[in-house]
Design a protein that fits this description.
By secondary structure, the protein is α/β, with parallel strands linked by helices. The protein has 16 helices and 16 strands. A hairpin with a 2-residue loop joins strand 1 and strand 2. The termini are far apart.
């Protein structure tokens, strides 16, 4: 602001601190941007000299200085009001926005998931095959999708094939394609899903369900980068990233001759394990809250939050079906009930103490001791535990203090030894 009176010229400047880096949590429009100290008056040298003369000889100078002081006080008040207005506006604009924590389409920041996120980032930029393991419903396809989206072939196609959902007699044609007339019903040539994934990622979900003859053809494709459509005489070049997954223990499958060992080592370059939902702690509530809002809106319901008891019940449940089971549980509760708060009784989950039911380990009746092979004793104890837990292998494993994979492995070995004696399901 410049004030001019004849030869007297004054320049008033609001002091402003130099630009600096903002600290965490500090507003960009801070009240510090306009100082609360009084404005500074800068006088040019000729005007300063005239000012001294005015003080001594001119009453007009005294009057002018009085006016300048009054203007200085008014300017200071204006500066303070401006600073308060800016600070208030800043506080309104800088309210923190809560964002969902996660990676890709995953939600949650538990230690188990943080380990998975770090591994995903490390392996995404490689073109090596990735073998994902995890229980059903734990998010293996989300894992494969995240790998593709962070890989060098992110702009290419992502083709997912559920090997368990396609009949064995059609799987080869679906995967590698066929030519016209190759079989009854082949009225036109069709490229396979492997060819469709050229330049991108081919995700083979439930790869353990591939028939052994098709496993050998998949191995050849991995070794040569070429596919042979059914009925064709020429191969087709394909360059794609291979990601596969299974909910079973692949080493047990190899040991029981259900999966080719050479194919296993070709695919099992980078192993990834998706943690089950029960090992993700508070992630359960974060996922449930997100699902509740989305599903309630879809169903036209008013639910906005979970009750404290409902949260405790969600955390206590072991979720053998993982995220898929959680999603179905919430959907059922939302459809069958109404209100703003979803309570524990609406969830209709089994008691969290069900898996603590004691299991009898007696292997013989009466007082007479009967000696039997150890595997029979183990089998009886394991099957009794599974039966007591309503078929839940994770619960049975917790009772027996062994890993669920141990139960899967032993049951497969028993089935191989005695296929005529099916195990309970």
């Amino acid at each position: 602001m410049i004030i001019s009176h004849k030869s007297l010229t004054s320049i008033w400047v609001l002091d402003k601190p130099p630009r600096r880096t903002l600290n965490a949590g500090e507003s960009r429009l801070s009240g510090e941007a306009v100082t609360r100290s009084s404005p500074t008056m800068i006088l040019s040298q000729p005007a300063h000299t005239k000012r001294r003369q005015c003080r001594k000889t001119s009453s007009k100078g005294t009057t002018l200085m009085t006016a300048l002081k009054a203007h200085q006080a008014a300017s200071s008040a204006t500066a303070l009001n401006l600073a308060d207005d800016i600070s208030t506006t800043s506080r309104v604009r800088e309210l923190p926005v809560k964002r969902p924590r996660g990676f890709g389409e995953f939600i949650g920041d538990s230690s188990a998931m943080q380990t998975l996120y770090r591994t995903l980032i490390q392996v995404a930029h490689s073109d090596a095959p990735i073998f994902i393991t995890g229980e059903s419903g734990s998010g293996k396809e989300l894992c494969a999708t995240a790998i593709h989206r962070h890989s060098p072939v992110r702009d290419g196609p992502f083709i997912a094939v559920n090997c368990a959902a396609i009949p064995a007699e059609l799987l080869e044609s679906q995967l590698f394609g066929h030519v016209r007339g190759a079989f009854t019903g082949a009225v036109s040539t069709q490229q396979g899903l492997a060819v469709a994934a050229d330049g991108g990622t081919l995700f083979l979900d439930e790869i353990a369900e591939l028939p052994l003859p098709l496993q050998s053809k998949l191995l050849r494709f991995l070794q040569t980068g070429q596919v042979m459509p059914v009925g064709a005489t020429r191969t087709v070049e394909v360059n794609c990233r291979i990601v596969c997954a299974t909910h079973q223990n692949p080493r047990v499958l190899v040991d029981t001759h259900r999966f080719r060992e050479d194919l296993f080592y070709r695919l099992h370059v980078i192993p990834l394990k998706v943690p089950p939902l029960r090992e993700r702690g508070q992630d359960i509530l974060e996922i449930a809250t997100g699902l509740l809002g989305r599903m309630a809106g879809h169903e036209g319901k008013r639910f906005t939050r979970l009750s404290v008891c409902a949260e405790r019940q969600l955390l206590a449940h072991d979720w053998p079906g993982n995220v898929r089971e959680l999603e179905n549980t919430l959907r059922r509760a939302i459809i069958l009930n109404d209100g703003e708060v979803l309570t524990a009784d609406m969830l209709d989950l089994p008691s969290s103490t069900a898996h603590r039911t004691p299991v009898s380990h007696n292997v013989s009746e009466g007082n007479e001791t009967t000696l039997r092979p150890l595997w029979m004793v183990e089998r009886e104890a394991i099957e009794s535990a599974i039966s007591a837990c309503d078929g839940s292998i994770p619960r049975a494993a917790a009772i027996l203090e062994i890993a669920p994979s141990t139960i899967y492995r032993k049951r497969l070995s028993w089935l191989a030894m005695h296929p005529e004696e099916p195990t309970s399901h």
